[in-house]
TrEMBL record:
It comes from Methanofollis formosanus. It comes from the Archaea. This is ABC transporter ATP-binding protein. Keywords: ATP-binding, Cell membrane, Membrane, Nucleotide-binding, Translocase, Transport. GO terms for biological process: cobalt ion transport. The lineage of its organism: Archaea, Methanobacteriati, Methanobacteriota, Stenosarchaea group, Methanomicrobia. Belongs to the ABC transporter superfamily.
Length: 277
């Protein structure tokens, strides 16, 4: 059974064309799933359905095999946490510590449990020095970390990150990659994320969905998707720089193999240089 699934999910905002058209999507336990697509493809709208913020026009969303309804919405939001693209939509309490406590408090947890979860989330996101600061005084990257901490404090089984690297500096991006990659094994968590930075996808994802004009147009492993530059170009996405370079080298006769993550590409270049490709 998939931990989260959509079946023929369709949704339209009032007086606008469909934002989702027959979307079928699945994610398994401890899986890392990337959803990529140009602006307006439907990624954020899909994410808002996965924890019940939006209600489908038709089709359904299932969590642990059960259709999401008004009756089980509280349980769904315990299981599925969503971090918005813009942290200002999510961070609003007087202090960082209070903001992180907001979600667990809404779950009806006792004060001791809330305090424990808040402290754990603060440590996970390295927010010890910011706990008493007003969130609106923080940088964009700091707000993003607070927003993620607030969702982690609810201890979801699925963490959804909408453009998680937006507003982060290079060190913040590197830290986020390391953190996200610990979640499946350390916490048994499924991670679903969107990004316009396709170079990050091989470092973060086990599988990839490609969306275009409200539909899923492709789904597969990282090699299956990134070995199709025609697909990426047709959906208005840039081929990642490393894959573009390797393709260009092969076109001029350099015997270089395939690679998608930084480590794989480094090994391919090393093998080619030594004449073993």
């Amino acid at each position: 059974m998939h931990i989260i699934e959509t079946r023929d999910l369709t949704f339209a905002y009032p007086n606008r064309p469909p934002a989702l058209s027959g979307v079928n999507f699945t994610a398994g336990r401890k899986e890392r799933v990337a959803v990529i697509g140009a602006n307006g493809a439907g990624k954020s709208t899909l994410f808002k359905h996965l924890n019940g913020i939006l209600t489908p026009s038709s089709g359904e969303v299932l969590v642990h095999g059960e259709s999401v309804t008004k009756r089980n919405l509280r349980e769904v939001r315990k299981a599925v946490g969503l971090v918005f693209q813009n942290p200002d939509d999510q961070v609003f309490s007087p202090t960082v510590e209070q903001d992180i406590a907001f979600g667990p408090a809404n779950l009806g947890l006792d004060e001791e449990t809330i305090a424990h979860r808040v402290e754990s989330a603060i440590q996970l996101m390295a927010l010890e020095d910011l706990r008493d600061r007003p969130p609106h005084h923080l940088s964009g990257g700091e707000k993003k970390r607070v927003a993620i901490a607030g969702v982690l404090a609810m201890e979801p089984q699925v963490l959804i990150l909408d453009e998680p690297t937006a507003g982060l500096d290079p060190q913040g991006v590197a830290d986020l990659i390391r953190f996200v990659n610990t979640l499946p094994e350390a916490f048994g968590m499924t991670v679903i994320f969107s990004t316009h930075h396709l170079d990050l996808v091989p470092e973060l994802a086990d599988s990839v969905y490609v969306m275009d004009h409200s539909r899923v147009v492709a789904h597969g492993s990282v090699p299956a998707i990134f070995s199709r530059p025609d697909l990426l170009e047709q959906t208005r996405l840039d081929v990642p720089a490393l894959q573009r370079l390797m393709r260009d080298l092969r076109d001029v006769g350099v015997p270089i193999g395939e690679g998608y993550t930084y480590e794989e590409v480094r090994e391919a270049f090393t093998a080619a240089y030594r004449g073993r490709a």
